[in-house]
Write a structure and sequence with these properties.
The complex is a heterodimer.
Chain A lengths: L1 H20 L2 H19 L6 H23 L1 H5 L2 H7 L5 H29 L5 H27 L7 H21 L4 H24 L4
Chain B lengths: L1 H11 L13 H28 L4 H31 L8 H22 L4 H28 L8 E2 L2 E2 L3 H42 L1
Antiparallel strand pairs in B: 1-2
Helix pairs in contact in B: 1-6, 2-3, 2-5, 2-6, 3-4, 3-5, 3-6, 4-5
Classes of the chains: A mainly alpha, B mainly alpha.
Chain lengths: ~210, ~210
């Protein structure tokens, strides 16, 4: 119970910060819309809908990257990480709180991105939406952990995409598979990815967040 | 050991009926790839030892194993590419699962080095590297599953459930080559480890002197 209220407090902190600063979400929204516009010109007329769906997944991953890169910036700038680590709560609550906040940001970005995609390109099946929701969990879990790793180093934001993109390849495969093929095989795969990496990140965060 | 392997590859093993001489690269390509996996596995095991038991040597050992793994991984990509050119006529095929998997792993472990060199040496660097190395071994089966789901299968599946589909001499040659590669890995691993330890020791002595 303590654990859950700690997580809730940390998530609330992140959402409040965003509500006041209004930095990440507008950037993500604008980015995803610009990306979709660029993709309209990038794919030639007469390309299949599957190609457009592939680009939707590219847009989602890069938009999430934009949000994830910012995820630990407030902590770093204000030196908050030390305080959080010293706080009398389990360290994995920091990760869980941040992950939930990132999922919320991603969700908001996609509430705009998915209708925009149907408007610009083609309709979406319910399965694609389910795949996006499943992918969000995996992306946020893994991305928050690599984000915490990236801010520990000198290269900071520069290194986050390098750490995150190879890990996101299975998500892309699962997402495009779920959009383009029939049957629940790829949704199950995404669920498997989520389970494995959520557990791993949750267990590993203790070692990542150390006093600077 | 390596000499025996080379001799048996070129003079003892029968040529493949279908692919002829070029098939002989198989005896290098596959053992190199398997040794690469062994390196990553060993690196992750040492990473786990570091996080779990706080073994003071494990961090360096994990790093050295992964460094060797990346070298074997690059060799796999090169030999695989040569083999693909000869037998399929192209340098690169996306439909080949193993090759794509090695590319993903190569990118992943290059990021490992970026991470390691962007953090100052110390316990934090050891922890971050170890966590990332552990992510790597989890990524191997997950990406393999992903890639297999996403593509048709071109690679000749040699090891099936009913056992290896090779003649006796071919299997023996293959095992000799695999053993030779593993011995090569262990030797290089020990060498690099000894070098790194010597380096640390010299630094310590230097600091004592000044």
């Amino acid at each position: 119970m303590r654990y859950l209220s700690d997580v809730a407090a940390l998530t609330r902190k992140d959402l409040l910060l965003e509500l006041r600063a209004k930095e990440t979400i507008p950037a993500m929204l604008l980015f995803v819309l610009s990306a979709l516009t660029i993709f309209h010109f990038a794919i030639p007329r007469g390309s299949s809908d599957v190609a457009a769906l592939g680009l939707l997944w590219v847009a989602i991953v890069f938009t999430s990257l934009l949000g994830l890169t910012r995820a630990f910036v407030p902590e770093r700038e204000q030196g908050l990480m030390d305080a959080l680590v010293l706080a009398p709560c389990d360290r994995s609550t920091i990760w869980l709180g941040k992950t939930i906040a990132v999922i919320a940001f991603l969700g908001i970005a996609e509430v705009v991105a998915l209708p925009a995609f149907t408007l610009f390109f083609s309709g979406l099946t319910l399965k694609t939406v389910a795949a996006v929701a499943l992918a969000d969990i995996g992306i946020a879990a893994v991305g928050t952990l690599t984000g915490a790793m990236a801010v520990a180093g000198r290269a900071r934001e520069l290194i986050q995409p390098l750490l995150f993109l190879p890990l996101s390849i299975p998500v892309i495969v699962g997402g495009i598979g779920a959009s383009a093929t029939a049957g629940p095989k790829f949704l199950l795969f995404l669920a498997l990815y989520d389970t494995v990496f959520v557990l791993l990140s949750w267990a590993a965060f203790d070692f990542v967040a150390a006093e600077a | 050991m390596f000499a025996i392997a080379i001799v048996s590859v070129f003079f003892w093993a029968p040529s493949d009926a279908d692919q002829g001489l070029s098939q002989r690269i198989f005896y290098f390509h596959v053992p190199i790839a398997l040794t690469g996996y062994a390196c990553f596995g060993w690196g992750a095991w040492k990473a786990l030892r570091h996080l779990w038991k706080d073994d003071p040597n494990a961090d360096l050992e994990s790093y050295v194993a992964i460094h060797q793994g990346v070298i074997f991984g690059s060799l796999t990509l090169i030999t695989g590419s040569i083999w693909a050119k000869i037998s399929w006529g192209v340098w690169w095929v996306w439909s080949d699962d193993q090759l794509v998997l090695f590319l993903v792993l190569f990118l992943f472990y290059c990021a490992y080095f970026m991470l390691r060199y962007s953090v100052d040496p110390g316990p934090q660097r050891a922890n971050l590297s170890a966590v990332y190395a552990l992510f790597g071994v989890v990524l191997i089966p997950v990406s393999f599953l992903a890639i297999r789901l996403s593509h048709s299968f071109i690679h000749p599946v040699v090891f099936t459930r009913s056992g290896a589909q090779m003649t006796g001499t071919m299997l023996t040659t293959f095992c000799i080559c695999l053993a030779a590669m593993l011995v090569l890995f262990v030797t290089l691993y020990q060498l690099e480890l000894a070098g790194k330890r010597l380096d640390t020791r010299i630094r310590e002595l230097k600091e004592l002197l000044t």
